[in-house]
Design a protein that fits this description.
Elements: H1 2-5, H2 17-25, H3 31-35, E1 41-44, E2 59-66, E3 71-76, E4 79-87, E5 92-98, H4 102-106, E6 112-121, E7 126-129, E8 132-135, E9 142-145, H5 154-167, H6 178-183, H7 189-197, H8 202-230, H9 244-248, H10 257-270, E10 277-282, H11 288-301, E11 305-309, H12 313-328, E12 334-337, H13 343-355, E13 360-363, H14 366-369, E14 377-382, H15 390-398, E15 404-409, H16 415-421, E16 426-430, E17 441-445, H17 450-462, E18 466-470, H18 480-493, E19 501-504, H19 510-521, E20 527-530, E21 543-548, H20 556-563, E22 574-578, H21 584-595, H22 599-610, H23 612-617, H24 635-651, H25 661-672
Parallel strand pairs: 5-7, 10-15, 10-16, 11-13, 11-14, 12-13, 14-15, 17-22, 18-20, 18-21, 19-20, 21-22
Antiparallel strand pairs: 1-9, 2-4, 2-6, 3-4, 4-5, 6-7, 6-8
Helix pairs in contact: 7-8, 8-24, 8-25, 10-11, 12-19, 21-22
The structure holds adenosine-5'-diphosphate (ADP) and magnesium ion.
C-alpha cells in the first residue's frame, strides 16, 4: 500500500505530461505527495443566505434557480458578456460573465445552483459578476482552496485529489499506531485525508486537521529528538555538588523562584548522565545573567572552568564587570578575552586558561575560534544567541570533552517555536520578573509632539535618572555615525544643552564603545544617543526613559528589546515611540507595544503580523518545512506530540518495531528535504 503512495502522479486520470510538470512545480510528483498537498484555506458553501439579505460588497453564497439560459451579448471585438437572471423565490439577481461561453451550457434554465461571489448592485437590483457556482444538489459544503501555480487551478488540483482517492484502498496503512490514535482520540488516516481535502463539515475538518497536525509534529519531534540523543554522549564532566545556595549569598538580591528553578534544572543536567544542552528563555530583564553566573560558580567550585560568550564586546565587558564583582568575593579568578585587547594581554589570559589559574573567561565568540585552550572546560554559556544554529551547537559540543552547554535567548520566542527550533535543547523558562518591576509606560507620539517629549525626558534627567535616545535611521548603507552625530548636535544646540550626552554607533572601536558604556553605567552621562547597538543586553538600572525615533522602522521584537533597556530597576520607566507612520501594519505594531510589555505576547503578535514563513525565512534554522501544523495555533498539540515522541524513542530508539515503521518512513521523508539525510 505504501507503494500506492509512491506511484507517479501521471497514473491518475486526467494527469498527463503537461499537468504533471505543473504539479512538479508545487513539489508534487507522487500520489502520496498529492494527498499531502493540503488546501491552503477553505470556502464555506454550506449555508447560503437569501439574495435579499446578503450584505452588499461582501462575498456570500446564495442559492438560486436559473430563470432563463444565459444570453450572449457581444460588446466589442474580443469582449462577450453572458447575462442571466436567477431567483431564490423572493428576489431576483442578475449574473454577468465575461468571455465565458461555457456558462451557457453549464447553467441550465430551471435548475438550482449555489453561487459564491461578491454581492453588488443595490438593495433592489442585486448583481453578481462571474460568481463561482455548483449544482445545489450534492453541493460540497466546504470547498478546498489549494496552493496554485500558473496553469493549474485549485479546481483541477481538487479533481486530481479525487481521482487519487478512487485508487486508494478503503483502509490505508496508518503510520500512527492504533493504540496512540485511540489514546489521543485521533481519527484514521483515510478519514483524515478525505476530510482535510473535502470536509463534510467544519467540525469534521477540525477532527481531520487535528490528526494530521499531530502526525506532522510527532514526526518532526521524532527527528529533532533523535538528533539530540545522538549528540548525547557520556557526561565526563559530571558535577558532584550543587553549590548554588552559597552563590545566592553573594548576590545583592534574592533570586526569584524562576531563577532558582532554572538553576536547579541545569544543575540536575550537569550532575546527570549526559552533558547539559539547555536553553534559558526569559523576557528582557528577567535576570538571565544571574542564572548563568550561578552555574559558572557551581562548575568552578567543582574544579572546572567556565566560559561565557556574548555577542558584542560591550556586552562581554559589562558581564565581566558584574560577574567579577560577584565572584571575586569567593576568590574566583575571572578574565576578559576580546579581539580588541593587545596581543600581550591576550597571551596572559590564554596562559591563565591553559594553566587553569583563570577559572572564568568572558568574551565574544572569538573566544572559541581563537586557539584558546583550557585546562578543564566544564561549561560554555552563550548569551543572547538565538541565532546560533543546530550545527554550531553541535560543533561546540565537540570542543574539549563535551562541555556543558547553556544558551540564553534574548528574544522570547513563542514556546512553540522554541520547542521546534531548539528541539535539541532542553528548555528552562524564566517566567517571572524580579520583584518591584513596574510596567514600562509606553506612548506612541507623532513628531510634532517631540518637543514636549523632550521636556518629559528632561524632567527625569533632572532627578538624577538617565535616558536613552535611539536616533533616526538614515537609508541603509549609510553609516549610523552620521545620524548619531547629527542627532546629538541637534540635542546639544537645543533642549539638552545643559546635559551630559554620550554617543554610541557602529563605527566606534569596541574600546571606545566600552568607555562610553562604562561612563554611562557610572552615571557620568545623563543621556546616551545611540543606534540599535544598545539593543541587546545592556543593563543600566538607573536609566529609566527611552525615546525611539522612527519607531515604525523596527520590528516588534526589536522594539521590545530596545524598550527592555529601561525598566530594569524599581523606578517607574517610560518608553516613547516617535513615528509619523500611517500604514496599518506599522500602526498595529505601535499599538501592540503600547498595550503590552509581555515579551511572549509580543513575540506571538510578531508572528501573527509577519507570519511564520517570515520568521523561519529570516534565519537559518535548517528545519523541515511543515505542511499543515501552524506554530501560532497548534501549541497544545505540539506539546502532546513531543511527549509521545519522547516515549516512543525511549521504548524504540531506532524506530525498528513494526508499529513504528510508518513513522520512521515519514521522518525520513520530512528530513530528506532539508538535507538532513541522516534518517533511514
Ligand atoms: P536579562 O534577562 O535581560 O539578561 P539581566 O540578567 O541583565 O536580565 O538582569 C536585569 C537586571 O535585574 C540586572 O540589573 C540584575 O542585576 C537585576 N536582577 C536580576 N535578578 C534579580 C532579582 N532576583 N532581584 C532583583 N534584581 C535582579
Ligand atoms: Mg542579558
Amino acid at each position: 500500500m505504501a507503494s500506492l503512495f509512491n506511484m507517479d502522479i501521471k497514473t491518475l486520470k486526467g494527469v498527463g505530461e503537461k499537468r504533471a510538470a505543473l504539479f512538479h512545480k508545487l513539489g508534487v510528483d507522487t500520489v502520496g505527495a498529492l494527498l499531502r498537498l493540503y488546501p491552503r484555506t477553505y470556502e464555506d458553501w454550506s449555508t447560503p443566505v437569501s439574495i435579499g439579505s446578503a450584505p452588499l460588497n461582501e462575498v456570500v453564497v446564495v442559492r438560486g434557480t436559473v430563470l432563463s439560459a444565459p444570453r450572449e451579448q457581444r460588446i466589442r471585438k474580443g469582449m462577450t458578456l453572458y447575462k442571466t437572471q436567477v431567483t431564490d423565490g423572493v428576489q431576483d439577481m442578475t449574473l454577468t460573465y465575461f468571455n465565458n461561453p461555457y456558462v451557457q451550457t453549464m447553467l441550465r434554465e430551471g435548475e438550482t445552483y449555489r453561487f459564491r461571489g461578491k454581492m453588488t448592485g443595490t438593495f433592489t437590483r442585486r448583481e453578481m459578476t462571474a460568481p463561482d457556482f455548483a449544482p445545489d444538489e450534492g453541493c460540497a459544503p466546504i470547498v478546498p482552496v489549494y496552493p496554485q501555480t500558473v496553469g493549474l487551478s485549485s479546481r483541477q488540483i481538487g479533481s486530481a485529489v479525487r481521482s487519487a482517492f478512487q485508487l486508494l484502498p478503503e483502509l490505508l496503512r496508518d503510520p500512527l499506531p492504533d493504540s496512540m490514535r485511540q489514546s489521543h482520540q485521533l481519527c484514521q488516516l483515510r478519514f483524515a485525508l478525505e476530510n482535510v481535502h473535502f470536509p463534510g463539515s467544519m467540525e469534521l475538518l477540525q477532527i481531520a486537521r487535528r490528526r494530521l497536525v499531530f502526525e506532522e509534529l510527532l514526526v518532526l519531534q521524532l527527528g529533532l529528538l533523535s538528533i539530540k540523543s545522538r549528540s548525547r554522549v557520556e557526561n565526563r564532566l559530571r558535577l558532584e555538588r550543587d553549590d548554588s545556595e552559597a552563590f545566592y549569598r553573594l548576590l545583592p538580591f534574592v533570586p526569584t523562584n524562576a531563577q532558582k528553578r532554572a538553576v536547579s534544572e541545569a544543575m540536575a543536567d550537569m550532575m546527570g548522565q549526559a552533558p547539559m544542552s539547555r536553553l534559558i528563555q526569559g523576557d528582557v530583564g528577567s535576570g538571565k545573567t544571574a542564572v548563568a553566573a550561578a552555574l559558572c560558580y557551581c562548575v568552578i567550585q567543582n574544579g572546572m572552568q567556565a566560559a561565557l560568550m556574548a555577542p558584542t564586546e560591550v556586552l562581554a565587558r559589562q558581564h565581566e564587570r558584574s560577574l567579577s564583582g560577584m565572584l571575586s568575593q569567593a576568590g574566583i579568578q575571572t578574565a576578559l578575552l576580546t579581539g580588541s585587547m593587545t596581543a600581550k594581554q591576550k597571551r596572559l589570559v590564554k596562559e591563565g586558561l591553559a594553566s587553569g589559574e583563570i577559572q572564568l573567561v568572558i568574551g565574544t565568540h572569538a573566544l572559541l575560534t581563537e586557539e584558546v585552550t583550557f585546562q578543564r572546560l566544564g561549561l560554555v554559556v552563550t548569551d543572547e544567541q538565538h541565532r546560533f544554529g543546530v550545527a554550531q551547537r553541535a560543533a561546540l559540543a565537540q570542543k574539549g570533552e563535551n562541555p556543558h552547554l547553556l544558551v540564553m535567548s534574548a528574544t522570547p520566542i513563542p514556546r512553540t517555536l522554541a520547542l521546534m527550533i531548539f528541539g535539541d535543547l532542553d528548555i528552562s523558562i524564566l517566567d517571572e520578573l524580579p520583584p518591584g518591576r513596574q510596567k514600562i509606560e509606553t506612548f506612541a507620539i507623532t513628531s510634532d509632539k517631540r518637543e514636549r517629549a523632550f521636556g518629559y525626558v528632561k524632567k527625569h534627567l533632572d532627578r538624577g535618572l538617565q535616558g536613552y535616545m535611539i536616533c533616526p535611521l538614515i537609508e541603509e548603507g549609510v553609516s549610523d555615525m552620521a545620524s548619531v552625530t547629527e542627532y546629538r548636535e541637534m540635542l546639544e544646540q537645543g533642549a539638552f544643552s545643559q546635559y551630559r550626552i554620550g554617543v554610541l554607533h557602529g563605527r566606534m572601536k569596541p574600546r571606545e564603545k566600552d568607555a562610553v558604556m562604562a561612563q554611562f553605567s557610572a552615571g557620568e552621562l545623563d543621556l546616551l544617543v545611540s543606534t540599535t547597538v544598545v539593543e541587546v543586553g545592556v543593563d543600566v538600572p538607573n536609566a529609566v526613559i527611552i525615546l525611539i525615533e522612527n519607531a515604525e522602522r523596527y520590528g516588534l521584537s526589536q522594539l521590545h528589546q530596545l524598550r527592555g533597556r529601561v525598566g530594569r530597576g524599581t523606578e517607574k520607566s517610560t518608553c516613547i515611540l516617535v513615528s509619523d507612520a500611517q500604514n496599518p501594519e506599522a500602526l498595529a505594531r505601535l499599538r501592540v507595544m503600547c498595550q503590552t510589555s509581555d515579551g511572549f505576547r509580543i513575540a506571538d503578535e510578531d508572528l501573527k503580523l509577519r507570519g511564520p514563513g517570515d520568521f523561519f525565512g529570516s534565519r537559518q534554522h535548517g528545519l523541515p518545512q511543515l505542511s499543515i501544523a501552524d506554530m501560532a495555533q497548534d501549541v497544545q498539540v505540539l506539546k502532546t506530540a513531543q511527549k509521545e515522541a519522547q516515549r516512543i524513542l525511549r521504548e524504540d530508539p531506532e524506530l525498528e518495531q513494526p508499529e513504528h515503521r510508518g513513522l520512521r518512513g515519514e521522518r525520513r521523508q520530512l528530513f530528506e528535504k532539508v538535507g538532513e539525510g541522516a534518517f533511514t
